[in-house]
Design goal:
6 helices, single chain, three-stranded antiparallel β-sheet
């Protein structure tokens, strides 16, 4: 808890450990992909298609509103000694699951109003549709009782008791609608709509 957070900033925060020894921000990755930098492209391209598909499906399920083309909410991590140990890391889920910063958009059924999550165009254009379909199947089959257990164990400062019901209802409903939300991407590339 940030007891002295500046006005307008999050009071609660979560810090995660570094997964990779080196990381590039999405802004750096995007700019280098646009310049077609051979060193960066050869490092990133083998990991881009599958990571994009998994991230897009997960973000859409959670109604993540803050990845889009955000400079620093997506990282590319890697190990200089082993480039096969690399991948994209998606950060900052504060504006997901109906939490918009000023209102709870999922209260009252708002969870079905938003479809696909905003996501970087360069990732959408290169996403692996087979991986996208597989991720959708995994989310569709995620047991409701496990989802309930995950939501129930989040401590009260992060979710008020009255937020748990709409969050759980939203996640359960969105997992049944995920294929519909993503159908343009699944159809356009020969996947299973």
């Amino acid at each position: 808890e940030r007891t002295r957070a500046p006005r307008g900033e999050e009071r609660f925060t979560c810090v995660s450990l570094f997964i990779y020894p080196r990381e590039f921000s999405w802004g750096m990755v995007r700019d280098n992909l646009q310049k077609n930098s051979p060193q960066i492209s050869s490092l990133i391209h083998p990991h881009l298609a599958a990571s994009a598909a998994r991230g897009f499906a997960f973000d859409t399920w959670l109604d993540q509103r803050d990845h889009g083309d955000h400079e620093s909410n997506i990282l590319f991590g890697f190990d200089d000694r082993n480039h096969s140990d690399a991948g994209f890391v998606f950060l900052d889920y504060a504006f997901s699951m109906g939490m918009t910063g000023s209102e709870e958009a999922w209260v009252g059924g708002g969870h079905l109003l938003a479809g696909e999550a905003p996501f970087p165009r360069v990732m959408l254009d290169r996403m692996d549709v087979a991986v996208l379909n597989d991720m959708v199947v995994q989310i569709e089959n995620y047991p409701e009782e496990e989802l309930n257990a995950v939501v129930a164990r989040i401590p009260e400062p992060y979710f008020r008791p009255d937020e748990r019901g709409p969050i759980l209802a939203g996640l359960c409903a969105r997992k049944t609608q995920l294929r519909r939300f993503l159908s343009p991407y699944l159809k356009a590339n020969g996947g299973t709509p």
